[in-house]
Design brief:
The chain has helices at residues 3-14, 18-28, 33-56, 61-70, 78-90, 95-103, 114-127, 135-147, 152-160, 170-174, 182-195, 198-203, 211-234. It is mostly helical.
Length: 235
């Protein structure tokens, strides 16, 4: 059974209760951790995207398009994705309670869980689709990251890949300091490249349909490293 079929089965079994969908992910796939991770990630991206749109109050065509960019579902599954998306938008439960349930499904349940970082990254991608991340969207993202037990430094590093109010900061993107020597920066860059290799995403349960998230992240990491390398050579 594909994880798309799994999501459809959960929606059919739980009706119109989003909390029931989350609990079903936990119980139905307890003996199949790989499928559970993929379904959990998919449900989280769909539902948290919908709730972010609701928090902002406006759903733009650009946001819908960005959602499709990172969530490349088969055409014959569009109605199932839309069903869960609308279910999340209409659900009366607050996004915080839902985010807490999703955090509990993290594969490591530790701070800065990689799969939860992937979710935050995807939400940033959607939030910036209309050309700017609005205050309500940023507040939403910060709160979700807090619920995901992501520390502020790590959140700022993710945000630096998407928000450039004062220009792109390649050091912040790589999580290094301008005071660091280049060998330290190169080592950190290589660690980040290794951690974000597509095989690593597959291992932690990110479906292949979401690998646009990883591609955007790798592009940002590569650009940041190249910018610092060029700067150091010119110095």
């Amino acid at each position: 059974m594909s994880f798309w079929e799994s999501i459809l089965g959960i929606i059919n079994a739980t009706g119109n209760a989003l909390a029931g969908v989350v609990e079903a992910v936990r119980t139905l796939f307890e003996g199949d951790p790989e499928t559970r991770r993929k379904v959990a990630f998919s449900v989280a991206m769909i539902a948290l995207s919908a709730k972010m749109a609701k928090a902002d109050g406006i759903v733009t065509e650009a946001e819908v398009s960005a959602f499709r960019d990172i969530f490349k579902f088969p055409d014959d599954q569009a109605h199932n994705v839309a069903r869960l998306y609308n279910l999340a938008r209409q659900d009366v439960a607050g996004y915080e309670a839902y985010a807490e349930k999703m955090a509990a499904l993290c594969v490591s349940c530790e701070r800065d869980c990689p799969i939860l970082e992937d979710i935050i990254d995807g939400l940033f991608h959607i939030a910036k689709a209309d050309g700017a991340i609005h205050d309500k969207e940023l507040a939403y993202l910060m709160r979700v990251a807090e619920i995901f037990r992501m520390d502020e430094v790590h959140f700022q590093q993710i945000m630096a890949r998407h928000v450039h109010a004062s220009g792109v900061d390649p050091y912040k993107i790589l999580g290094v300091s301008p005071k660091d020597d280049f060998s330290t920066i190169r080592k950190q860059y290589r660690v980040l490249v290794s951690e974000n290799h597509p095989d690593r995403l597959v291992a932690r349960g990110v479906p292949e349909e979401f690998h646009a998230i990883a591609n955007d992240r790798m592009a940002a990491l590569n650009a940041a490293y190249e910018a610092i390398e060029k700067e150091r050579r010119a110095a």
